[in-house]
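Subject: sequence -> C-alpha cells, single chain

Hey, anyone have a minute? Need the predicted structure for the following. Not urgent.
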Amino acid sequence: MRPRINIAAALLLAMLPVVGICGVKDSDLDVKKISRAVAYSLPLYHLNQLPLDESISTNACNLFINSLDPARSYFLQSDIDSFNADSKVLNKQLRKGNIEFADNVFNILMERIENRTAFIEKILEEGFDTSVDESFLWDRKEAAWIQNEAEWDEVWRKRIKNEYIARLVVKQVYADDEANADTNTVDSAETIVTNIVADAEGEYDEAAETANLSPEEFILERYRQFKLTMETFDEEMLLQRYLSSFSQVYDPHSDYMSPSSVEDFDINMKLSLVGIGALLRPDDGMIRIVRIIPGGPADRDGRLKAGDKIIAVAQGDEEPVSILHRPLYKTVRIIRGEKDTTVVLTVIPASDRSGTRTKKIDLIRDEVKLEEQAAKSKVREIEMEDGTTRRLGVITLPDFYADFKATNKKEKDARRASTDVRRLINELMLEGIEGLVLDLRNNGGGSLLEAIETAGLFISSGPIVQVKERDRIQVLPDVDPETNYEGPMIVLVNSLSASASEILAAALQDYKRAIIVGDRKTHGKGTVQTLIPLGGTRRGSLKITTAGFYRINGGSTQLKGVTPDIVIPSYLDVMDLGEDSLEHALPWDSVHEAMYRTVNGQVEFVPLLAEHSNERLENNAEFQTYLVKRDRLKERFETRTVSLSLENRIAEAEAEKELDDIQNGSFLEETEEEDDSKDLVLTETLNILSDMIDLKKIGRPELLAPNLSSNALTD
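Reply:
Had a minute. Here:
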C-alpha cells in the first residue's frame, strides 16, 4: 500500500505542450497530399460550409500555438508576433501542402524548453523562502504572453516555487494517511516521475523508484524527462496537431485523424469491446473522460467520472507510466487489454481545476454488458397525509442502445431501448403506478431512432426532431399512433444528458407532455459527426460535423441544451462539462417550427410545483449542507491563483479534504446500487410528481393543500 498524496506537481505536467516533431522521427506519410485533402474537405463537407479564408487561418494559428503552450509559459510575445506575421497565409500554404510553419513553431518551442530547463536548475539551487505571502496564477490560459526575459524568469520562479511547496504539503498534510491508504485513492508522485523517465530512456531503475526524492530532485527530474519526451515525438503527431487546429476552428468536434488514430477509431469510440468503458478526448496534455459508457467496467465501478483527467496508467501491479503529451490513440492502446486484467488509472478529479489532487482507480477490463446497460424500472412508494400509499414508477434509461445486427435480421427478441421501455411501462402499470419518472441523467445519447421511438411511447404520432444538413432539413417523426403511457410524467435530466437524450426531453417538453426536472440545463451537444476518409490507407480521415439537431419548436439543442421546467441545484452546474465550455463551439440558431399539437393538463402547474419544491429543499438539512459544499466547490473553480506561503497552503489542503464527498460525484453519501433512498434529486423529483398528481385531481392549482409538500418516501 502506498500513501495518498496530493500531487500539485501534476499541474505542471498538465500544462506542458502536446506536439510532434518533423525531422526528428520521420514517417511514411505523404504530408503534402494529406494537407491538401484537409484544406479541400473542410469547407466542402462541414455543416457551415465556411471558406478556408484568412479568418480560419488566423484562428487556426492561435489554436495551434495554444495547444503547444496552453499555460503561455514557454513562448514570448516576440515569438507570438513572429508567428502572427504568417498567420493570414497559412490557409494558402495548406492548400499547397506546405506545413513548414508547424516545423518552425516547434523548433522555437524546443529552444525555449532548453532555456527553461537551465533556468530551473539555477532557481532550484538558489532555494525558496516559503514564508513569503505571494500568489501564483496557475491558470494562464487567458493571460497575456510574456513580454521580456525578466517577466519570464519571474513567472517561472513562482511556477517552480509552487511545485516545491506542493511537495512539502504532500509530506506534511498526507503523511498520516499512509497507514490507512488503499488502492482506491493511492497517489505516488515519485513512482510516476521515475517511470516517466524510464519510459523515455527505455529502462527502469527500481532503486530510483523507491528513492525518497527531495522536492528539488523531484522537480528537476521531471523537467529533464519532459525534454526527453519532446524529443521523441514524430511527424505524424505534429501533422495531426496542426491539421486539427484548422478543423477545430470550424467546431470543436471536428478533427483530423492520422492513420494510427483511424486504426483505433472503433475502439476509441467503444472501449466497451475490452477496456474500461469510457469515451476519451485530449485536454491540455492529459486525457479527459468525456462519457462513461453504461454497463461498462467504469460504470459498474462508479469511481471514474465524466470530466476526470487521466495522467498515468499502470498494468496490474506494475508501476504507472505517464500518458501526458501522448496522442490519444497511443493512450487507448495502453488502457485497453485482455479481458479480466487490471488497469490502474491515475486521475485528477473533474472537480479539481488546479490539478493539485489525484487519485488512483483500479478497473478490471471487460466488455460492456448489454444487460447492465439496459433500461431498468422500480416502484417507489409515498406515504400520504391520509395514511394511504401512492405508488410511483421510475424508469432509468442510461443509453439509447440497439442490437443493430439482430434488428436488421428482424429477430423478434432483438434488444432495443424503446422495446425495453415499452415493456417496463406495461409492468409498472400492472403494479398500479399513478405517475412516472423517466430518468435520463448521465444518458449521453446513442441511437437516434431509439430516441424517436422512445419519445413516441408517450405521444400519438407526430414529429420528434428536425435534422439540418448542408442542403436540407428533415423532420423525423414517430409514426406509431399508439400511446403506451398517458399519465403524469417527469423527465429527469442533468448536465451529462446529451444528444439523443436531449432530443427526447426537448420533444416531450415542446409537446407539453412531460415536465422536465434537473440541472440548470442539459449538455448542449446538438451536432452529428461523420468520418470522411481522405483517400489511401496512409492518409487518415477527417472527423467532421455534417448535421445539427433542432427541436420541433425550431430551436437548436446546440449550446443551450434543454432548460428544465423545474431546476434542482447540482454540483455539475459549477463544472465546465457542457458544450458551452468548448472553444469555437457552434452557436445556437433556429429553423422553422414543425407542425405539431401540444398536450394539455400538466405544464400549467409548473409555477406552483416549483414553489413547493423550493420550500421542501429549503427545509431539507441534507440538501442545504450539500449546497454549502457546492458553493465552496464553485469558489475553487473560480479561483485562478494559489498561495505560495507554505502555512497558507497547508491550511488550504486541510480544508480541501472536506470536499472529498462532492469530488467523487456523490451528493452526500455513497449508496448501494439498489438503494436510491439517498438520491436527493430523485427523491425531490418524486415529490414533485406526487404534487402534480394531486393538482391534476384537484384541477385548480390555487386549491393545493399547504401540507402537500410533506410527503414521505419509502422503498
